[in-house]
Structures are given as C-alpha cells and as structure tokens.
Amino acid sequence: MANVSAYTIKNSTGLVLPYDVWHSEIRKDINIYEKVAQNITFKQESHIEALLACFTLDIDSRLRAFLHSLIKSYYKPNYAGWNPMPVRLTATLIAAIISASRTSVSLTLSYWMEKG
Predict the structure, then answer these.
(1) Torsion over CA of 82, 63, 86 and 107, rounded to 10 degrees?
(2) Which residue of 60, 71, 79, 99 is 20 to 30 Å from 91, comparing CA positions?
(3) pLDDT tens-place values along the chain, 116 residues long
(4) Which residues contact 97 (CB under 8 A, 6 or more apart)?
(5) What is the pTM of this model?
(6) Taken in order 41, 36, 54, 109, is the CA torsion positive or negative?
(7) What 8-state DSSP symbol labels residue 39?
C-alpha cells in the first residue's frame, strides 16, 4: 500500500486500479511489462538526478536546468534567442519543483530580467 499524490500542469484524467488488476493486465503482454520496468528505471534515475541536483547545484543552476528541461519537453530550444515558456507556472510551484524558496526563485528571475 502507498499514498500517491499526482500533480499535473494541464487538465488530466487519472485511472485508479487495484494492484492485482493492474499487475495481471500488464503481465499479459511482455512488451507492456518491459515498458513498465523501463519506466520504473527511468523514474528512479530521475529521482537520483534530482537529489544530486538539489544537493550539489545552486538555485540559479537548478532553475536553469528545470526551465531547459521544461522547454525541451515541448519544443526544440532556440539557443541563439528567446524561448517562450510552454506553460504558465507560478514562482511557488517552480520553487517546489526545484527545492527552493519562492523568494529565491522570484529574486533569481527578477535578476535575470534585469540583465536581459
């Protein structure tokens, strides 16, 4: 048993299945089973990367890495110019994502805007 919370940026629909139903269904197709195993591995690697980033990178670097990743997930970044944010996020939400305070995120973004 586990408590699971999920947050989405866009409106989404979730499907909740009892574990035994979910497990029996994915076991019916080895390709699906392998995809689930691959997804678990990717998720754990992502958690490890996040921990390393939070303990080794300053807020400026974490914020840059997050924004770069977010932009890349929607379109190919324009490294020679501006890249519009693909979604609207509050400073509070960004702070939670990069393990920083809202004040630190706001100050960093304000500093970047001053510098152009």
Answers:
(1) -80
(2) 79
(3) 566 777 787 888 888 888 899 889 888 999 998 998 898 888 888 878 777 777 788 999 999 989 998 999 999 999 998 899 999 999 999 999 898 999 999 999 999 999 98
(4) 66
(5) 0.60
(6) positive
(7) H
